[in-house]
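Late entry, written up from scratch paper. The run itself happened at the end of the previous shift, but nothing got recorded in the book at the time, so transcribing now.
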Amino acid sequence: MTSETKKKPIVVSGIQPSGSLHIGNYIGALSQWVENQEAFDNVLFIADLHALTTPGEIKAKELRQRAIEAAGLYVACGIDPDKSLIFFQSDVPQHAYLGWILSCCTPLGWLERMTQFKTKSEGRERVGAGLLTYPTLQAADILLYHADLVPVGEDQKQHVEITRDIAERFNHLFGKYFKAPKPYIREVGARVMGLDNPEVKMSKSLAENSRTHAIGLLDSPEVVKKVISSATTDSAPAIRFDTDTSPGVTNLLTIYRCFSGAGDEQIQNTFEGKSYGFLKKELTELLTSRLSAIQTRYNELLRSGGLEQILRDGAAKAEAIAGETLREVRALTGVG
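Output as recorded:
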């Protein structure tokens, strides 16, 4: 980040390497980061520390490989490391340090009412404390870089809201320092649904258990065709735009819109009155072409060895910013 780009709004976001990235991640996050990198200062990290909140679910070797894969896909999808910081969360120790300080500031009740904690702890005999304090580490991720905006889906606004609350709580206890970030929600495609069940959001965890739930960014053309062919639609004979389409058809049209860049009028002219088979064929060809380009760049990046240098450079730049924030926080709290 140069002095010239300091004036740009700062956007902070990360993705857990808990599963392979899919088209929902691309539409809801990656493509948005690519679009914004000229207008915003992007701080983009692989949230590998967050992946440890449910220990044992991912083997250490697999976690590292998934983190590398995710970082490679960031760049392959068009994120420019000269314009955006890309790094592993675990390579910048200030995240964990500030996370502890914020944990000490955050009332227990705030953490216990978080939807994610309730969902992931339900039915478990034991849960790690990290699952409860996940929001304070996430707040540290955001506040270290004085983020203005945090890209989230409509269903994730609670995470930004508690970060704002934690920032205000810190300011009340130690003096005004952190600014409260705002959620940044994409108008189209922020919530891509499962292809096997359009009533639930597409997720990496569900994709692990159902091969027809999502399309991975590294999936072959054969897999793309199979998953799209089996995607849920409805019993109507053709696509209609004069009434609300079914959730499944709406989901397919949303994916088509986001990957093609076509406007509503163009999409209506292309698909109105056509069969679902036609929609699936067009979407399959579109996704196959777009994913092939991403996969080519990804494979070239891994073969060249350039990804390791990108991650080292990104971590060094991020640590310089995070280090300054932490020095000021330590002074305010009396521990430095």
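The chain has a mean pLDDT of 91.
(Scratch paper discarded after transcription.)
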